[in-house]
Design brief:
Layout lengths: L1 H10 L1 H30 L12 E4 L3 E2 L2 E2 L9 H7 L4 E7 L2 E7 L2 E2 L6 E5 L8 E6 L7 E5 H7 L6 E6 L2 E13 L7 E5 L1 H7 L6 E6 L5 H12 L4 E4 L15 H33 L1 H9 L4 H40 L13 H27 L19 H24 L6 H18 L1 H11 L1 H21 L1 H39 L4 E5 L6 H8 L4 E14 L6 E8 L4 H4 L4 E4 L8 E5 H7 L9 E2 L5 E2 L2 E6 L7 E5 H4 L10 E6 L4 H14 L3 E5 L9 H4 L2 H29 L1 H9 L4 H39 L8 H26 L4 H7 L1
Parallel strand pairs: 7-12, 9-11, 17-23, 19-22
Antiparallel strand pairs: 1-13, 1-14, 2-3, 4-13, 5-6, 5-7, 5-10, 8-11, 9-12, 10-11, 15-24, 15-25, 16-17, 16-20, 16-24, 18-22, 20-21
Length: 836
């Protein structure tokens, strides 16, 4: 059987090219998604500034199994406890606080960050003193060599450094140089006491240096036993997570993204392989019948087909390993570029995603082979004498049941999206696959649907296209299975592309417009030096022409309730300016009470949490700190901007830099250019401050929803590209197989123009049928998603998106049929028929 299968592959190489490409590209994409999945599951980062510490102790970055978005700091007393653990040579506490060195009043690091640390932690990178001396008193600092070069500083000189939002002058006591191949951010070193004071008295991490001869694993276990659940102990490549607070919050996003698109790709690969393999077997109907006529059994034919597929799938998987790794790297690069994942996270694609991708592809091919080869293996010997009837039967009970399974699941996901799922980051995980499943269900029923739609189009086609149309209609009637084979992959292409692109355009529109309505401010001041000192907002309010100003802080936290914590968006504002800066229609209480330990929330959220004005709301902030603020106001619910509002002075200390990064400014009526000029002058006086209009905040809003834009487009482009290649393979294969048919038509009097006209009409029929079915399939994604997002059945976005998708699909159809046909008809008709 192996010999027969290999000989079949050898002498029918052209027939198997489409199947091979479908497997190869599918395996590459599945392997790429597998690498992304492994990266998300492992979520590791090589240490930079802590690279010299084999063991790192840091705050637990989860609350109730959910990742925190801010750094959870630890008590400084833990340093002494860790230092006394057996096998520990030294334990060094580390803090990181924004510290921006200025030159001529401007940050020397541009848009990149620089941080201040205690000098004792310099050994953790390690840094060594290259010139000068260590800082021993307040007001002294050591700069790393690169920072000193850019600032023009040297030992004994003075530099201005922004710390805690305030410009302070420091004496440069020394210059430090880094040893090793790490690449930490620009560093400033203060005395240990001053660094800890700037950090609020707590520390970020503890670098553990084992004693000589002590095993790192044993030391880590001993430290872990000592600290218990008060901190987390990291070793190996996970140490870098201590330098990236909030990174674990992206783990769920990456895993969901890889799982959703990976599963969709598996389904599409199965469909693509089944489609191309089924077409190949259909074209070999006469060969199968002859094999049955000479004594082959259905079991032998199934074994031969399975062996052929095994050879193709194994070969395609082996060739796809390297491209699959490259695709995974590409997807990971898109995620890091769009801010979903920190660039410091290590991309992992070991043997596991390779093996999973290989196994999934082989199993998908085997399943598709069993489905597509079932009817071919049952071909009766007499069919060899009735070749004209081959390919007209398509209906079977298993095919119907499978189609109903996919259609029902597609509809089920659409209903779940519209009625069950809330407007949140996982909404796309149900809306997106709905169109994929529905597309596959329609493709399985495509022969019957195509036949019915061609019958409906018969009269207009005859009236508009003459003889060419009649020939095309006759071909469609007698070879509806062949035409459906061309329709199916185009349905997939149009359905997936239309559904996903309009889903994203709707998301973009709703996010942008809802945020614009919520923000009443005219301008926003942005700090690039770690945040604004408390007095800056007062200076803004005192500026002539300014009606109100409010500090603005963003974070994520948790509301504690009986069913488990509810993760929510948090906003920090100033009570004196919030009413003029944000659209929060108050229905109970007053926003002027937002001071100290208080909170305001929507009336819907208040009912959900069972609280009223004057009652306390148990919460955990983004760094895991437990609080019980008093509810002072309820405002009308905005489904697109559901967040809790706290005083900026309360929320900011529990964020990474500890200060507000934005100030919202509402100008008085008629202020105009004068106010802008005054605000610009004020921004110039506060180092690292940028002035922009309030629309600039829209691009940063709703990050949980928006960070996947680039990744969505990239992965959809891959899937659509795969579907497009399947379309081209299918149509080219069909067209090449019909060369004898074209030759006979020419021998009976048809001209090249008439044959090409017939193919043009067939292409239009294929395009119309596929467009209708693809549009119906895309509606299972677009309609429920739009209902949840914008309370509309229609998506947001230009009609040009749809026209471009349909137009591109028609170009593929005509290019894959007319070009091979035109080239094939350059040979004499007699030779074409003889060659067949």
């Amino acid at each position: 059987m192996w010999r027969l299968a290999l000989r079949t592959l050898k002498f029918r190489r052209t027939s198997f090219v489409a199947t091979f490409l479908a497997m190869f590209l599918g395996a590459a994409i599945v392997i790429g998604c597998g690498g992304l999945m492994e990266t998300g599951v492992r979520m590791a980062a090589e240490p930079q500034r802590l690279g010299g510490a084999p063991v790192v102790v840091t705050g637990e970055q989860t609350y109730d199994s959910t990742a925190l978005t801010e750094r959870h700091r630890i008590a400084p007393g833990l340093v002494g406890e860790v230092a006394r653990v057996r096998g520990v040579r030294a334990a060094v506490g580390d803090v990181s606080v924004p510290a921006t060195v200025l030159k001529d009043g401007k940050p020397v690091t541009g848009e990149s960050a620089s941080y201040g640390h205690g000098w004792a932690s310099a050994r953790l990178t390690p840094y060594t003193l290259a010139a000068g001396k260590t800082p021993v008193a307040g007001g002294e600092a050591v700069l790393d060599a690169d920072l000193a070069r850019r600032a023009g500083a040297r030992p004994g000189s003075s530099v201005d450094i922004v710390v805690q939002g305030t410009v302070r002058r420091f004496l440069v006591s020394g210059i430090a140089e880094q040893r090793g191949d790490h690449n930490p951010d620009a560093a400033v070193f203060f005395t240990d006491d001053e660094a800890r004071t700037l950090a609020g008295g707590r520390i970020d991490s503890i670098g553990v240096l084992p004693a000589p001869g002590a095993r790192v694993a044993a030391v880590a276990d001993a430290v872990r036993a000592e600290v218990g659940d008060r901190a987390e102990v990291l070793t190996g490549e996970r140490r870098g997570l201590a330098e990236l607070p909030g990174t674990l919050s992206s783990k769920r996003t990456v895993v969901i993204l890889a799982a959703v698109f990976g599963s969709s790709v598996v389904l599409i690969v199965m469909f693509g392989v089944a489609s191309t393999l089924g077409l190949s077997l259909q074209q070999r109907a006469r060969e199968m019948a002859l094999l049955r006529a000479v004594g082959s059994t259905p079991h032998q034919l199934r074994r031969m087909i399975l062996t052929e597929t095994a050879v193709l799938s194994v070969g395609s998987v082996l060739l796809a390993l390297l491209p699959g790794y490259a695709i995974g790297r590409l997807l990971f690069g898109v995620l890091t570029a769009s801010g979903v994942v920190s660039p410091a996270i290590v991309y992992h694609a070991g043997w596991m995603p390779m093996a999973v991708g290989a196994v999934v592809t082989v199993l998908a091919a085997a399943g598709a082979t069993r489905f597509a080869g079932r009817r071919a293996a049952r071909t009766e010997p007499v069919a060899a004498l009735a070749e004209s009837t081959a390919g007209t039967r398509w209906f079977s009970v298993p095919r119907l049941l499978l189609a109903l399974f996919f259609l029902a699941n597609g509809i089920g996901l659409a209903v779940a999206t519209a009625t069950v799922m809330e407007d949140g980051p996982t909404l796309a995980s149900t809306a997106g696959p709905a169109s994929v499943l529905f597309c596959i269900g329609l493709a399985l029923l495509a022969p019957g649907i195509t036949k019915a739609m061609v019958a409906l189009l018969r009269l207009p086609v005859r009236a508009l296209s003459g003889l060419s149309g009649q020939l095309a209609l006759r071909n469609a009637a007698t070879a509806n299975v062949r035409m459906a084979g061309a329709v199916a992959p185009i349905v997939l292409l149009i359905g997936i592309a239309t559904g996903t692109l309009y889903m994203q355009s709707t998301e973009d529109h709703v996010s942008r417009t809802s945020y614009d309505r919520n923000i009443l401010a005219d301008y926003v001041l942005d700090s690039t030096t770690g945040g604004f000192a408390p007095g800056v907002v007062d200076r803004v309010r005192a500026t002539p022409g300014v009606a109100a100003a409010s500090e603005f802080v963003t974070s994520r936290g948790f509301v504690d309730r009986a069913g488990g914590p509810d993760q929510v968006d948090l906003r920090g504002v100033s009570a004196d300016g919030v009413r003029q800066s944000l659209d929060l229609p108050v229905v109970a209480g007053s926003l002027t009470g937002l001071r100290g330990d208080t909170v305001a929330l929507s009336d819907k959220k208040a009912r959900e949490y069972g609280v009223k004005v004057g009652e306390r709301l148990p919460m955990h902030l983004g760094d895991g700190t437990a609080v019980r603020p008093t509810v002072v106001a309820l405002y009308a619910d905005n489904p697109k901007q559901e967040y809790l509002t706290l005083p900026a002075a309360t929320l900011a200390p529990h964020t990474g830099d500890g200060l507000p990064h934005q100030i919202l400014v509402r100008t008085a009526r008629g202020g105009g250019a004068d106010v802008h000029a005054r605000l610009a002058a004020l921004a110039a006086q506060v180092p690292g401050t940028e002035l922009d209009d309030s629309s600039s905040l829209a691009g940063r809003n709703n990050q949980i929803q928006q960070i996947l834009v680039s990744a969505n487009y990239t992965i959809v482009a891959m899937i659509v590209g795969y579907a497009a290649i399947t379309v081209v393979n299918t149509l080219v294969s069909v067209t090449r197989k019909r060369r004898a048919e074209f030759g006979l038509q020419r021998l009976t009097g048809a001209t090249r123009a008439q044959v090409l006209g017939m193919l043009t009409v067939e292409g239009l029929l294929i395009g119309v049928v596929a467009t209708v079915l693809g549009t119906v399939a895309s509606a299972t994604t677009i309609v429920p998603y739009s209902l949840v997002k914008s309370d509309s059945y229609l998506p947001s976005g230009s009609i040009g998106i749809y026209l471009a998708i349909v137009g591109g699909s028609l170009l593929l159809v005509f290019g894959a049929t007319l070009l091979p046909s035109w080239r094939g008809m350059r040979s004499p008709a007699v030779e074409t028929v003889k060659a067949a």
